[in-house]
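Support request, priority: normal
Reporter: lab tech (M.K.)
Component: structure prediction queue

Hi team, I submitted a job for Alpha/beta-hydrolase from Aureobasidium melanogenum yesterday, and the status page still shows it as pending. I've pasted the exact input below so you can check whether something in the sequence is tripping the parser. The sequence length should be 263 residues. Please let me know if I need to resubmit or if it's stuck on your end.
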Amino acid sequence: MITRKSFNTALGLLIKDDQAHNIAGYVSLDYRLSPYPSHPASPSSPDDKSRNVQHPEHLNDVLGALSFLGSNAGEEVDLKGGGAIRLPDTSSITAGRYVLCGHSCGATLAMQTTAVLSAGHSAIEPPVALSGMEGIYDIPALVATHTHPAYREFVTAAFGQNEETWVTASQLVGELEKWRGNVLLVQSSSDELVDVQQTDSMIEKLVVQGFTRTSTISTGNEGKQVWKSVIDCLHDEVWEKGTELAKAIRVVTDKAWISPAKH
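Reply from support: The job had stalled in the queue. We restarted it manually and it finished. Here are the results:
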């Protein structure tokens, strides 16, 4: 199962970079999952509160985590399992000096989070840039394209039986008209789970909202640019190998990408 600890492989590559001095720190977030009792390797239990929620609770968890990090920067916080940990200086999150990077459903949440924050529904400012990797941006299209029952099963578990909710959740993904940041969308040509049309349709949605397609980001750009990057790996290899995830983070944390910093 992919958890916050799955980031460790990519993190090991990132902390060796010369670029690291541009970055104050890395945070990998967990959020509560929807029920999946038929999972072949790790079926969920009805008693597990961390695996029995529906939309919008996943989104609320991410928003809550950002608020927590911004409010408790540098402070010592208690851990649920006992003990305590001192947080690094994450105060820049409140001011919007951070980037979001998400994979698969995490890419969905990165887009939704940015949309909510750019609409002014939180004291936290939206990120200066974001990356979505092999993301799910159009939920009804995902179910329509993939006839295997597992797709409808996990979508229903996450968003309920009402397909109007699927539409509403998908619309929120693309509500970035007010946001001035840059977007990197990464899609593997060998992804066996999420089709390239998800990324291509997301780009079209962003273009309608004033984004410009680009293949490079120059220092001094005005923001609202979207760059598609094609990679070659299986869906979960983004985490397992860490190479492409580290590359995406290097791109969106480059000074040229975050220079607009306007919302």
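The chain has one domain: 4-258. The mean pLDDT is 90. Let us know if anything else looks off. Ticket resolved.
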